Amino acid sequence: METTESLFEALFARRAELAPLRGEIRAAFELLRTCYRDGGKVLICGNGGSAADSDHIAGELLKGFRLKRPLPANLRAKLVAREPTLGAVQAERLQGGLPAIALSAHAALLTAFANDVDPELVFAQQVNAFGRSGDLLIAITTSGNSRSVLHAAVTAGALGLSVIGLTGRDGGRLPPLCDVVIRVPESETSLVQELHLPIYHTLCAMVELELFGPQ
Predict the structure, then answer these.
(1) Bridge partners of residue 102, in order along the sequence
(2) pTM score > 0.85 for this model?
(3) What residues make up the domain containing 25?
(4) Domain count, the chain
(5) How far is CA 144 from CA 72, 82, 178, 184, in A?
(6) In the Cβ-directed half-sphere of 108, how many Cα atoms lie within 13 Å?
(7) How far apart are CA 192 and CA 135, in angstroms?
């Protein structure tokens, strides 16, 4: 039977160069698990390709990723009681979701705040609006020096959010702002991003199995 541990080990079987990061990746999983078990949500930010990764992570968390995630029986019953025809469709097809917000996804806010206030603070503003103590920020910057991401990490820490950093070999200015920082062993942007993907896929799969798998 598949377990969180088997998913964890499979990552290093596929990508041996990530083995030195075992401790950091496990610690990131533990932060994610704690956040969700305590009723928190995950905020994710990054620029360019890392913005796409932010959307990707949110997509894996908000709906079924590798598991079906059926709704609890009591919620299915409430949906049908609320409206039998529409509720029956929802009871059958909706999936359990883990709250996650990609901060790069809000075009009107991003452009308005960048134009009217400060483009470097577009993610920090959203962390300030959405974030609550017990939530978690995933801060993605391949260089570790993206100022919009650094500002978001500062705001998150001040508000009591945990911070997981995904970055490259050097880490830049990001590590001191994180509870856990995963620095992959590459420096060129596209190669860093290639290593970020299997890491966050594994983290999403582990959290999903922990929360929606067989009990």
Answers:
(1) 44
(2) yes
(3) 4-66+97-212
(4) 1
(5) 41, 49, 11, 11
(6) 0
(7) 26
